[in-house]
């Protein structure tokens, strides 16, 4: 799949998601290239007057910067107990609507915000669909810098192959918005995602991992059909 087609699918799915936001809603603003389009389209709808009185709860520094750029008022989790809707991307989606997230190292805040929403809407292009989680993407694990060595050993003992995520256009490791590090962990097979999510989070020094089990309500999938971008919904 070419980069152009992927961009068209991301834009189509982002537009469909932004169109589901209604005036007065508090919306979780996800992180990544797809949600960047969502935030842009929400800004367009606010500017045109089609939408009013919405507020965003950002999941990252990136989402905060984009929301400010596109004129979306922001709230924090000190201001609201729950959200009407959260819109976020994913790196993998399985047939049970379970996800791997964290390609942008934002999965810790994303899990907090996305799980507080009445509806969590996931926006992906069709390249993200997999039969089994872990088949194309490692599980990102946010780790306290102080604990990287013991957590690495514990993840290896679970059968994982952890690698410290390194920066692009920045020497050294990726540092998260919380000041932590990320281990990307490839597993030969993830037989039980729910169990693995809990087991990894039980390792002392782990802040959060990118397995999102039983959190997503609706998946919107951008596809190219007969050369045209279109959007399919999975909600059952
Ligand atoms: C960030 C994420 C992203 O939502 C995920 O990586 C998908 O990103 P993109 O929309 O750029 O493909 O989990 O931590």
Outline the fold blueprint.
Elements: H1 3-18, E1 26-29, H2 33-48, E2 55-58, H3 61-69, E3 83-88, E4 92-93, E5 99-100, H4 107-115, E6 117-125, E7 139-143, H5 148-157, E8 160-164, E9 181-187, H6 193-201, E10 206-209, E11 211-212, E12 218-225, E13 228-234
Helix pairs in contact: 1-2, 2-3
Give a brief rundown of this model.
With 236 residues, this protein is α/β, with parallel strands linked by helices. 29% of the residues lie in helices and 28% in strands.
Descriptive report:
The protein is 29% helix and 28% strand. The chain is α/β, with parallel strands linked by helices and 236 residues long. It has two domains: 3-129 and 214-234, Rossmann fold; 139-207, Alpha-Beta Plaits. The strands form three sheets. It has a six-stranded mixed β-sheet with strand order 2-1-3-6-12-13. A four-stranded antiparallel β-sheet has the order 8-9-7-10, with helices on one face. Strand 12 (218-225) and strand 13 form a beta hairpin. The structure holds ribulose-5-phosphate (5RP). Ribulose-5-phosphate binds next to helix 2 and helix 4.
């Amino acid at each position: 799949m070419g980069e152009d087609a992927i961009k068209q699918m991301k834009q189509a799915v982002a537009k469909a998601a932004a169109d589901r936001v209604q005036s007065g809603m508090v919306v979780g603003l996800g992180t990544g290239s797809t949600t960047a389009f969502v935030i842009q389209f929400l800004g367009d709808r606010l500017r045109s007057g089609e939408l009013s009185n919405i507020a965003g709860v950002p999941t990252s520094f990136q989402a905060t910067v984009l929301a400010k750029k596109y004129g979306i008022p922001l709230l924090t989790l000190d201001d609201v107990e729950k959200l009407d809707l959260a819109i976020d991307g994913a790196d993998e989606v399985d047939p049970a609507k379970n996800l791997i997230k964290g390609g942008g190292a934002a999965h810790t805040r994303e899990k907090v915000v996305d799980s507080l929403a009445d509806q969590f809407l996931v926006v992906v292009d069709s390249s993200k669909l997999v039969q089994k989680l872990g088949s194309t993407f490692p599980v990102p694990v946010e780790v306290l810098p102080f604990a990287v060595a013991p957590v690495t050993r514990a993840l290896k003992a679970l059968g994982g192959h952890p690698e410290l995520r390194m920066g692009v256009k920045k020497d050294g490791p990726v540092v998260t918005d919380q000041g932590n590090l990320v281990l990307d962990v490839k597993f030969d097979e993830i037989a039980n995602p729910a169990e693995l999510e809990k087991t990894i989070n039980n390792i002392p020094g782990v802040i959060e991992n990118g397995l999102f089990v039983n959190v997503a309500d609706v998946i919107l999938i951008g596809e190219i059909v007969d050369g045209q971008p279109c959007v399919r919904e999975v909600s059952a």
